[in-house]
Amino acid sequence: MKDVAKHAGVSVSTVSYVLNDSGPVAAPRRARVLEAIRALEYTPNESARSLKRRSASTIGLVVPDLSNQFFALVAEGVEREASARGVLVVLCVPGATDVPEAQHAALLRGQRLDGVVYLSGTGTAPREILELADSGHIVLVDEQIAGFDLPSVVADGRRGAREIAASVLQMGHRQLAVIGGPAALWTAEQRLAGYREAFAGAGIDPDEVPVYTGDYRMASGERLAEEALTCAGPRPTALLCANDLMAIGALEYCKREGLRVPEDVSIAGFDDLPIAALLTPRLTTVRQPAAEMGAMAARLLFELIDGRSSDGDEYSEPLPAELLLRESVGPAPRG
Amino acid sequence: MKDVAKHAGVSVSTVSYVLNDSGPVAAPRRARVLEAIRALEYTPNESARSLKRRSASTIGLVVPDLSNQFFALVAEGVEREASARGVLVVLCVPGATDVPEAQHAALLRGQRLDGVVYLSGTGTAPREILELADSGHIVLVDEQIAGFDLPSVVADGRRGAREIAASVLQMGHRQLAVIGGPAALWTAEQRLAGYREAFAGAGIDPDEVPVYTGDYRMASGERLAEEALTCAGPRPTALLCANDLMAIGALEYCKREGLRVPEDVSIAGFDDLPIAALLTPRLTTVRQPAAEMGAMAARLLFELIDGRSSDGDEYSEPLPAELLLRESVGPAPRG
DNA sequence: TTGTAAGCGTTATCAT
DNA sequence: ATGATAACGCTTACAA
């Protein structure tokens, strides 16, 4: 920068003024500066800038797992929104590494990050992250952490669950089973609540419907489908799975056991992962607008960072979740 | 930091020494410093550090698209390796935004990034990126950019292609069609070469086998499968698709048209996306060790950055690509 | 072994 | 309108 100043025959402050037009500068001199910048191929040193400005123009994105397409789509949304503002996104995948989460948190405090979009996938967060919530800025996506009132962007899972359950009931199913998500997860709870509302609405006692609790992963869907379909008593004719991954597991179980879907048993998922429409049968599910959720989370985070939030913690309305009827749910077999 | 020094009754340099054990410091004083750090909840300012050290401990990761699980897995590999070294990974998804790539490149020059793991997905890169290759450090993954001799991590796609084609031939197929990738892509070229080697090895004139050129996306697989299967002359009994996405498209076409796979037509893919094993029929494919490739790219990049490379440009051996025989390829129907 | 002090490249506050 | 100059928070000779 000094070189640029010299080359243009001006002072460094003038160069700085030109760079950020943060000060008045006469046209001819500004031209000379610009010219010098080009000539010397000068690029401002961002480390110095952020040191001075006390802001890194960088946010963090914490996702449990990138091979889960839901998270990947959220990440895309966040990245899009951030790069539109010239903000960098630092990726953290705590699961993929054995670096303690505390270290991730240190990043934020070390001013390398101005804020964080956080997806735990577990409904809990290490103490370090929670402490950050006060000082640093943090926005959750599709989850809420019990006992903490953190800003978050969520989809209307409850409504989606109610609708998908209602539509299954409308196909004549009366023997249902729910393969739910981890009890600790807010989304799991919401979706379960939605299912139960639909049951009640159809004159079924929600407590009569067996609920198997999984962990949102494929393997648990497979295992619990087996449990649900082989247990004593009348076999369920439809499985309500709280996410697509578990629904896929259930599908795999049926495939292995030679059960036809939906003729023998109907299966519904939740999320609308890109893969859902490619399965055989195509999976009936509820679309979570993942990319939009990521984008909205980023926007919310920027508002927090800019201190432009109306007041205290900020929330967005739940985004709509759209019911997608596909082949994996069919009419109930006649009993 | 000054506060810490004061609190511990030492000088700032001593604190710095303790922080990086970059200098000798007596045990009792070190303890006092540590204690002060804890007491004051001191976290070093990383912006200042990188300003001084002229290194950001941050690398960039450029991927065309995160919803493609191959890229997502590469990203996970990169992240894992980086965070193990305390290096941050900033994510860039050029496609998801309209920010000119030039701006991305400026990041590198602005010293915010020490290097970049680059996946264009197109086999080309903007001039800005290429210029970086000299000054900055860059490693490509699963591609090579024509006309430039850049360090890269690749899988042995040629061998994989040869093996999968050979195995299809061994099932008795004689009427084949290839659904290839974009001619400009190095991987597409490699895979095609592999197929052709297998054809020649089986006594088939490679030039007799029709090649339809797609763009590695699902839609093109669907369209080209139609072309291949409805063209004049004997219908192919097997489709060799240069990646899984196009194979999935082909599968979709068959599904729509009521063609049974593999009874009527066999379909082979390439990549082994996580979804491949979940399709019906399960997709025969070649595994690209995506996460390992990402990790290796990161390691290679760190070597370049540390100047620890044996000499000039550095390459890794192609990683092995493993043939996975599954249901989508079956014996040739008797003609 | 420890402390002092000179930068690292910017930005921002002042005089001019 | 412009130019010195003092921070920003850290590292690292160099001196003690």
From TrEMBL, chains A, B:
Keywords: DNA-binding, Transcription, Transcription regulation. The keyword Metal-binding does not apply. GO terms for molecular function: DNA-binding transcription factor activity; transcription cis-regulatory region binding. Residues 1-53 form the HTH lacI-type domain. CDD domains: HTH_LacI, PBP1_LacI_sugar_binding-like. SUPFAM superfamilies: lambda repressor-like DNA-binding domains, Periplasmic binding protein-like I. InterPro entries: HTH_LacI, LacI/GalR-like_sensor, Lambda_DNA-bd_dom_sf, Peripla_BP_I. This is Unannotated protein.
